[in-house]
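Justification of computing resources. Each target in the renewal requires a structure prediction run like the one illustrated here; the chain below, 399 residues long, is used simply to show the kind of job we budget for.
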Amino acid sequence: MTMNDLYLRQGAHRRLRGGHLWVYSNEVDTARNALSVFNAGDQVCVRDHNGALLGSAYMEPNSLICARVYAPGREMALDQGLLVTRLRQALALREAAFPTPHYRLVYGDSDFLPGLVVDRFGDYLVVQLNNAGVERLEQALLAALVDVLQPAGILLRCDSRARREQALPERVEVVHGDVPQRLPLVENEVTFEAPVWQGQKTGWFYDHRLARARMATYAAGARVLDVYSYVGGWGVQAAAAGARSVTCVDSSEFALEEVAHNAALNGLADRVGVRRGPADQVLNQLAGEGEAFDLVVLDPPAFIQRRRDLRKGVKAYRRINELALRVLRPGGVLVSGSCSMHLPREELVAALAGAASRVGCALQVLEQAGQGPDHPVHPAIPETEYLKSVFVRRLPELG
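Resulting structure tokens:
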């Protein structure tokens, strides 16, 4: 395969030399190679201003990130053979890290497969193609997945926010075998069924697995509130760890029906209840009713979608944590999470401190957690480290 060259402007190579994998449109020497001559998915050799090879990439010429490197320092096609190699490398990591075949198999740039997400549910795969460039590789990718894993079924979930922002068509379809509406998984020795067709993203969030395992140590005998519960990943695991009672809060009736399903699946229906409504509204209602919980979990959606929204987003995190602290009994534990890539961990801790000040209580940070090894962090791309959770204890009031 003959690959065209993409030349960078003078000095624009330094970040890629340091290991980063993204080329921004303003870094391209457009006098030598106009972006308009490329199509999404075209594979190119990225070169510095003097012609030295920086790596191989595929093009996204209409995006701010106009090229995504998949083979640093090398000239090679991203074909089925390389896809098989990358998938086997990713699989080896996950098989070493997890006891059952339930994990994120491919995490984009961190697995040198930019734009691609693959979640594994045993014999089934759910795939996200998050830009036009990687979508061009669809057939080679599907062939590689079948070669490496021999799955019973592959569901394509091309309905992500990233695709909508790029005005790419949305589609959800089976592209190999057959895929049921719900797929079983085991996380921290608790069984779930993920609604992969209708649920959020791929149907499940494997990323908080480590934090949920640590949460279980605080759950025994506790009265637990799981806010933004989705299908019960936190709440059902708390019940399985011996919680006295669990209340799952979500604005989605569908999600709460799935909570009840997963609780029943584990024989925990008698200890897991649900409450529907917006998180802030329900927390205010619970405080007004004088409710107090031993353990509160906050796992909200990303409040900060763009860097310029940081200040507004920090206020949103402070506010929701303030509401959570008002229903947390003295001596209780709050698990506060964030999946906002643009929110530094120290800002989340600062938001918790601000929330405590407004409530008039003191906190201790007990432990912190991040994403698991199926969401590896690329050391040169801080954006690949997005997840954080902070466990805090509300100090008992002095007698």
